[in-house]
Amino acid sequence: MASVLLAGCGVGRRRLVAAVEEAVAEVEGVRDVALETGIGGTFERRMSGTVAVEAGDRAVGVEIYDEAMKALVTVIHEELDDSGGQSFRVGGVKAVLTDGEELTAMVLDPEMSMPNPRLDRVTAGSFYEKYGLG
After folding, report:
1. pLDDT of 121-134, one tens digit each?
2. Rounded distance, CA 24 to CA 7, Å?
3. Cβ(35)–Cβ(93) under 8 Å?
4. CATH fold for the domain made of 2-127
5. Environment class of 29 (CB within 10 Å of its CB; exposed 0-12, middle 13-18, buried 19+)
6. Are strands 30-39 and 45-53 parallel, antiparallel or unpaired?
7. By the 8 A CB rule, do 129 and 112 touch?
């Protein structure tokens, strides 16, 4: 419960971002990470930013991005309680390849139970099954 409350305050958000950035930076092929958290228009917690990857080839970039998102989602899962982690919005985290191409979370096939999924609705929980969490 304390982690849920802490994640809503400035200190908790900074701690969560630092933990996520550290985990993502350790992924082979990631050259830079710049993330931030905030509260969305409907008071949902969200993370956005970029993961710069050392890949000009799209297929390789998707693989690195997938590993980076696995690290990101795993930290969220470990740091927040189940409902807080599941509902945490992560669709604003994109990868940038060395040639400038941007990849969004949709290339990773998040589990979305809606007919027209949108990036702003992609949650950490959308990846729990894929990454063996929960």
Report:
1. 899 999 999 999 97
2. 19
3. yes
4. Alpha-Beta Plaits (3.30.70)
5. middle
6. antiparallel
7. no
